[in-house]
Specification:
Keywords: Signal
Helix content: 10-25%
Structural class: alpha+beta
CATH architecture of the largest domain: 2-Layer Sandwich
Strand content: 25-35%
Protein name: LytR cell envelope-related transcriptional attenuator
Length: about 190
Amino acid sequence: MSSTSRPRADRTPGPAARAVATAALVACLVSGCGTADGHGAASGPDPTGGPSDVPTALPSFDPSSAVGDYAQGFPTGLLGAPKKATVLASSALPAEDGLVEVSLNLATNQSARKVMASYARRLDEAGFAEADEVPASGLAARSVFTRTRDTKKAAVETVLIGVLDDGERRLVSLSGTVAADGPTDGS
């Protein structure tokens, strides 16, 4: 060997090179890298900055829920939002014994006290009883209401309401199991 030639290096990749190659392969497989002819290419924006040929799919929602409105079958007569409130999302899923599992999320500028008074009045008129004091656990207000319907099989309805005060507005979360929309007088 002359002084200008170097010994031939071992061409076996070291642990670091193998780890990088394995990570690149896994990333390519997970992200759906395609072939040179474009088959199997992942959807999303074109890396050149142009529009993508494949639209990005939006998430689908459960048919029993709605965003910005009341879900089909939601008992608005009993649990509709107070005046000047914005419905963020709701759901209404039929359950056993003519009941429906509901949830409602809304935003309002009304005080927590006014929101709770509005629901308490409506639920009281419908025959619900408010549970004894419920710890608010970080909420501005929280309450639980129950009603037992006299049917062949007694059905207990429950409504839980929580109000979070973020300073500018109140975020109200309501959930429970109640009779399908109809008479609200407990019958």
